[in-house]
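Slide 14.
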Amino acid sequence: MSDRFAGRQILVTGAAHGFGRAIAIAFANQGAAVIACDIIAEEVAETARIAGNGCSSRVLDVTDPVAVKKMAAEIGNSVDILVNNAGGVRGQSGRPIEQITPQDWHDVVDVNMTAVFLMAQAVAPGMKARRWGRIVNISSGAGLGISLTGIQAYASAKAGQIGLTRQLAHEFGPWNITVNNVAPGFIRSNPATERQWEAMGEAGQEKLVQNIALKRLGQPEDIANAVLFFASEEANWISGQVLSVDGGK
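Slide 15: predicted structure.
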């Protein structure tokens, strides 16, 4: 335990499990007041329970503009640090583009990119008023290359999120608000990545690990550590950057 983030209010989306849970717990352990948000009520409540008294939970659909605005009004524009972690493939798997419906496309783009726009828009007034803020977006190695899932919308949305990160860094910079991006490699962190891991088979799993410089998979806490760095005072002159946390490629 430490008080590194004492007095700061943190909002973490997608905090029901995986990266989001690890990030919420890490901030709470360092003295922050954390609001853990997710659409999965029971699991995000469990995150708050594990994180302790410094963490509360809220059910939030980050793709719903009305819900996002309502949440921002209810917490009084008090967010100092926003972590946009919500995302994923929405239960989809890789298919030929001819089989993708417009709704399939929008479902994935909305949660991985549009939600980042909505959340940043919601917290911006409070951060600007205080002339201080940190926004950390969680993209993916898929945003820098191709997606292991083969899902066109996922790769496109994660790349678009990186572009939005860079644009917002310049827009928000005059108010002393930094905007950065963490791009994780493959980590077994949630039910979707577990299904993906199993689908690879032993040969595919071994190939993936051998393509990593450190020859091992990472943990959700590795992503949380990168987020805490971007949120810290040590990173106060870093903005618009993408940090790959992938074991080395």
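Speaker note: The chain is about 45% helix and 15% strand.
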